[in-house]
Amino acid sequence: MTGVVIFFFVAAALFVALGLADQRKLYWKLSSWRYRNPEANEPSDTAYTIGRVVVFAAAGIMLFQGCSAMSFADETSWSKSEFKEAVQSAAVSLAEDSHVDSSAGGYASLIESEVGDAGEGKGPSYAVDVKAVGESDDYEVTARGEDFVFCMHVSQSESEEGGFAVPGADGSSTVVPEYELTATVDEGSC
After folding, report:
1. Helix axes 45-75, 23-30, angle to 10 degrees
2. Shared-domain flag, residues 27 and 61
């Protein structure tokens, strides 16, 4: 993506240089040889002015495209500091609410969602990957396409609220326990 940004800015600089150059001298050096009578075929001052305006407009378009490409590159990738801040914010937000035990897949999808929400506007949430490490409550959090990794250790304790009741078909109810989560974040693999 950096190459595209550089291309647009270099093209804009070349168009500005072309617009600042003496158009009449450019005609005599580059185009007059094609005509038997170059003085008779020399463009008018109005044509030179219109050409200069078109060249400066092209420079403006290239400058705009360069800035747009820079903005796009920033929005579609994570910097290490942005990602670290999002992972740490996700660890804090996990502790704010109680959660139902997710014994089947652990808390990987919950962590992925929290990191995406915490990093909204800083990087793409679709590029967040979370995987459980072994049988422990450790999760490796990575940004797809980047080379940095964070380890989030999640511990759970039963909520003081106890949980919520789910009514059964026979009239009885089952209490589903809720858990308070605490998470710590370390830089590097687990």
Report:
1. 100
2. yes
Structure tokens at 114: 């929290």
Pseudo-torsion of CA 95, 98, 102, 107, nearest 10°?
Answer: -20
Distance CA 103, CA 91 (A): 19
Q: Is there a single domain that holds both residue 33 and residue 122?
A: no
- Cα–Cα distance for residue pair 12/62, rounded to 1 Å: 5
- Would you state the pLDDT for residue 8? 95
d(CA 49, CA 19): 10
CA distances from 164 to 99, 103, 149, 167 (A): 11, 17, 36, 10
Q: Which residues in the chain show pLDDT less than 70? A: 101-105, 162-163
Instruction: State if pTM tops 0.70.
Output: no
Contact criterion met (CB below 8 Å) for 119 and 179: no
Residue 139: other Cβ atoms inside 10 A = 23
Range of the domain at 12: 2-75
Q: For the chain, how many structural domains are there in total?
A: 2
3-class state of residue 105 by DSSP = coil
Query: Which residue in 77, 138, 80, 136 sits closest to 111, CA to CA?
Result: 138
Q: What percent of the chain has pLDDT over 90?
A: 23
